[in-house]
Design a protein that fits this description.
The complex is a heterodimer. By secondary structure, chain A is an alpha/beta fold. Chain A has helices at about 40-45, 70-75, 95-100, 100-105, 120, 135-150, 165-180, 195-200, 220, 225-240; strands spanning about 1-10, 15-25, 30-35, 55-60, 65, 80, 155-160, 185-190, 205-210, 210-215. In chain A, the strands form two sheets. Chain A has a six-stranded mixed β-sheet with strand order 6-7-8-3-9-10, sandwiched between helices. Chain A has a four-stranded antiparallel β-sheet with strand order 2-1-4-5, with helices on one face. Chain B is mainly α. Chain B contains 14 helices and two strands; from the N terminus they run ααααααβααααβαααα. Chain B has helices at about 5-30, 30-55, 65-85, 85-110, 115-135, 135-140, 165-185, 190-200, 200-205, 210-235, 245-260, 265-280, 285-300, 305-320; strands at about 145, 240. The chains are: A alpha/beta, B mainly alpha.
Chain lengths: ~240, ~325
């Protein structure tokens, strides 16, 4: 469904991504892990149209989407969320979801959301008329995902959805992600926290220093010596 | 339903009915002065309402509104005097020309997120337009301005050439502008504009073509300003380059913020306050601006959503059934 073909991204002399090649298949629930600064978010930024790749091509549903602006990608069904919780703080949940339903409501709508009534399915009724900025952070993350779903997305890129959430909120979020995946959306999650991902995804891609160092079942990649080194090295560095 | 909720529900309609009633006052009861003031208020309210589309809904600080207003006045006057158009045909012609210019200005100005570029480019365009009007002697009459001798022609057997006729044109322009904003506010396009105002990046990732939405809002808003300008010329019988001055735009932005940016009624309420306070106070014109300045500063500091924004919030609170009262505190 999403094919990344030999993509590199350089900022001046800094190589943020080095020859990344991988494919995410339709219906997968996969993770993207790696220590801080490994290039996870840069990869998402390049795939989601926020940045243009310096080299290489990206294909979505068989079509070249390299360098297309974000709204074009959203129209094709590829939608991302942002690190933390990016919502419209002054708008209510109801208003936000209505805005996000912009594409499916249009006359030229290509897709309908996989979950028709997100407000109900995500249990937002009791907050529906509250401004999004006043919601608990766990609900804000869920709203971010709900908005992405409302656009009729067929693939979601979630950027560190669990960062800073309590254990209970994390469990809720995992349930939401599973629910969305079960409804037929291909999901790719960036996560720094391995525990969150291990219980969730069926495949993990590991990047470090801009390059891909492992790709496979979550249980296997965490035993890969290069992955252990990347993580332990980073932790030892942080501890020092 | 609680009585207060009923009142809260009815109040907005009462407000619009009040406006409808006010519209008829100059038409029947009015002295010449009342008709003149009524026309001025209707034009100003229409102008503020059209500016609200780009400033209030799309959140883009375009500083070219008075320039398009003045452009409408000049373009219509020139087309009538030199090209022999009727007043009525000069309206769509001026609007189309303004829309084309807005599209040309808007393309470079609206491409970037962040209001500074837009404010600067549209400000520069406004000054350019004002200087053109002041210096292109042969066409515009230069800094001395242009005397307007034509009047709107009779239409459907109704005489529009006198001040009362022009008052009705001003009212029609206000209603057209209100209708445009009303339908945009209710539409998918209008909701997308609000998303653009709140967060351009998030909006684009939800599939909204931010540039296109800002552009359409700017073009419509500018064309409506030109429409209002076409009536200003015969109404005042005189136009001058001062009409295009950026001060006018800033007053308009003040009116929109005062009344409530991004609300349908805001610009109308703002206009009444802006034109009404000085009339009521009947003070030296020098101090009027001081009083208005103080009012605007207070509104921005104390209620940034403007008069109507705050009223809407209060009404919404009253409309909703009260949540269960908190447990009684110790009585003391």
């Amino acid at each position: 469904m999403l094919r990344i073909d030999n993509v590199s991204k350089r900022f001046g002399g800094l190589v943020a991504l080095r020859n990344i090649t991988l494919e995410i298949r339709k219906g997968e629930l996969s993770g993207l892990i790696g220590p801080n600064g490994a290039g996870k978010t840069t990869l998402f930024n390049v795939v989601s149209g926020f940045l243009r790749p310096t080299e290489g091509q990206i294909f979505f549903d068989g079509k070249d989407i390299s360098g297309l602006p974000p709204h074009e990608l959203a129209m094709r069904g590829l939608v991302r969320t942002f690190q933390g919780a990016r919502v419209f703080p002054k708008l209510t949940i109801r208003e936000s979801l209505r805005i996000a339903g912009h594409l499916p409501l249009g006359r030229g709508a290509r897709r309908q959301p996989v979950i028709p009534d997100v407000l109900h399915e995500f249990g937002f009724e009791k907050y529906a008329d509250e401004p999004a900025g006043s919601l608990p952070s766990g609900v804000m993350r869920e709203l971010g995902i709900a908005m992405a779903i409302s656009t009729g997305a067929s693939m979601l890129l979630l950027d560190e959805p669990a960062a800073g959430l309590s254990a209970e909120e994390v469990a809720n979020l995992q349930r939401v992600i599973r629910r969305v995946h079960a409804a037929g959306v291909t999901v790719w999650v960036i996560e720094h926290n391995l525990h969150f991902l291990m219980g969730l995804v069926e495949r993990a891609v590991v990047v470090d220093a801009g390059g891909m160092i492992a790709d496979g079942l979550p249980g296997e990649v965490t035993r890969d010596p290069r992955v252990i080194e990347a993580y332990l090295g980073a932790e030892a560095h942080a501890a020092g | 339903m609680k009585p207060i909720a009923l009142v809260a529900r009815a109040l907005p309609y009462v407000g619009w009915l009040l406006l409808a009633a006010l519209i008829f006052v100059p038409a029947y009861g009015g002295s010449r002065y009342l008709v003149y003031i009524g026309t001025l208020i209707a034009l100003q309210a229409a102008l503020a309402t059209s500016l609200n589309l780009i400033v209030g809904y799309a959140g883009q600080f375009a500083m070219s509104h008075a320039a398009f207003y003045g452009f409408g006045a000049y373009a219509s006057a020139i087309l009538i005097n030199s090209a022999g158009l009727t007043f009525w045909w000069s309206i769509p012609a001026a609007m189309l020309a303004a829309a084309a210019i807005a599209a040309i200005i808007g393309y470079p100005a609206l491409r970037y997120t962040g209001g500074v570029y837009l404010a600067l480019i549209t400000f520069a365009f406004g000054e350019l337009a004002r200087l053109t009007a002041a210096n292109w002697q042969d066409v515009t009459g230069g800094p001395m301005g242009m005397r307007i001798t034509y009047a709107p022609e009779a239409l459907f057997g109704f005489n529009f050439a006198n001040s009362r006729g022009m008052y009705w044109i001003a009212v029609a322009m206000l209603l057209v502008t209100l209708a445009v904003v009303f339908f945009i506010q209710r539409s998918r396009f209008g909701r997308a504009l609000i998303a653009v105002r709140e967060d351009e990046v998030l909006a684009s990732f939800l599939g909204i073509d931010v540039m296109r939405h800002k552009m359409i809002a700017y073009v419509i808003s500018s064309a409506l300003a030109a429409m209002v300008g076409t009536l200003y010329a015969p109404m005042m019988s005189f136009i001058s380059p001062e009409l295009l001055s950026v001060h006018e735009t800033i007053s308009l932005v003040g009116i929109v913020i005062l009344g409530g940016a991004g609300t349908l009624a805001g610009p109308i309420v703002g206009t009444f306050v802006f034109l009404g306070i000085p009339e009521l106070l009947r003070i030296e014109s020098l101090y009027r601006l001081v009083v208005l300045g103080v009012v605007i500063v207070l509104v921005v500091l104390l209620m940034p959503q403007g008069i109507v924004g705050v009223a809407n919030r209060v009404l919404k609170r009253w409309q909703r059934p009260k949540p269960a009262p908190p447990p009684a505190e110790a009585e003391n």
